[in-house]
Write a structure and sequence with these properties.
By secondary structure, the chain is α/β, with parallel strands linked by helices. The structure holds BIS(adenosine)-5'-pentaphosphate.
Length: 224
């Protein structure tokens, strides 16, 4: 097992690329902590915090929430002790400004980005993935109508929960807006991390297990 103490990984990829699915698998395998800004924002929306109220409409339209709000909620989360085990940033950074803020934060904590992993996928397939997605309402485990169903219908493999939910932004129209935001504002970060020498590109059109194996090899290599 890799010493994951200070590992910092970034998962880059459009909506539906499998960032959340793979981050949860890496979390289990390597003892890292998944930090999903999407999940943090959805929690803020559900709690009705000021940040959540400001983010709600933007998320429902498929746009990007302001860097200021995203950074504030991420900074709060990074203040919790479990992150010392190493982190997988899922959905952050998403803009040049967020990448610059992350560099500053890591400089302060004496860390570096070990790998920015770009999940390489096909846009049209992403719409199908997003539209069929649902999660366990109790533990958040992700499923898909076609590609990943629970072993026992209606029962979560992970926690035994029997209630499932779908995200408000998981419809074809909003997914297209999210894809546009990805290409306009986030995809340029691939060049940024390539220039820093930490970019790893992984074909994310295969099976979930094959992609997990490829990602596992990357993580073992960069955190050795
Ligand atoms: P966020 O929650 O980050 O959503 P996203 O980036 O659009 O990504 P998704 O969660 O849709 O996809 P994923 O890549 O995690 O795929 P998953 O593993 O679930 O952000 C939501 C919103 O919050 C944004 O639109 C924005 O408004 C805001 N936001 C968040 N972060 C922000 C930031 N930093 N700055 C500004 N705004 C921010 O997989 C999808 C489905 O496919 C699942 O059902 C899964 O089972 C299935 N699947 C996965 N892999 C495979 C495979 N290999 N084959 C077949 N099916 C697969």
């Amino acid at each position: 097992m890799t010493d994951a103490k200070s590992t910092v990984l970034i998962l880059l990829g459009p909506p539906g690329a499998g960032k959340g699915t793979q981050a949860r698998m890496l979390e289990e395998k390597f003892g890292l902590v998944q930090l999903s800004t999407g999940d943090l924002l959805r929690a803020a929306v559900a709690q009705g915090t000021p940040a959540g109220k400001a983010a709600k409409a933007v998320m429902e339209e498929g746009g990007l929430v302001s860097d200021e709000i995203v950074l504030a909620i991420l900074r709060d989360r990074l203040g919790q002790p479990d992150v010392a085990r190493g982190i997988i940033l899922d959905g952050f950074p998403r803009t040049a400004g967020q990448a610059a803020d992350l560099d500053k934060l890591l400089k302060y904590t004496g860390q570096n980005v070990d790998a920015a992993i770009s999940l390489e996928v096909d846009d049209e397939a992403m719409i199908t993935r997003v539209a069929g997605r649902y999660t366990c309402a109790k533990c958040g485990e992700g499923y898909h109508d076609e590609f990943k169903q629970p072993a026992v219908a209606g029962v979560c493999d992970k926690c035994g929960g029997t209630e499932f939910k779908r995200r408000a932004d998981d419809n074809a129209e909003t997914a297209r807006a999210r894809l546009e935001a990805y290409h306009a504002q986030t995809a340029p970060l691939i060049a940024h991390y390539r220039a820093l020498g930490v970019l790893q590109e992984v074909d994310a059109m295969g099976s979930i297990d094959k992609i997990a194996a490829d990602l596992g090899s990357v993580v073992e290599r960069v955190s050795a």
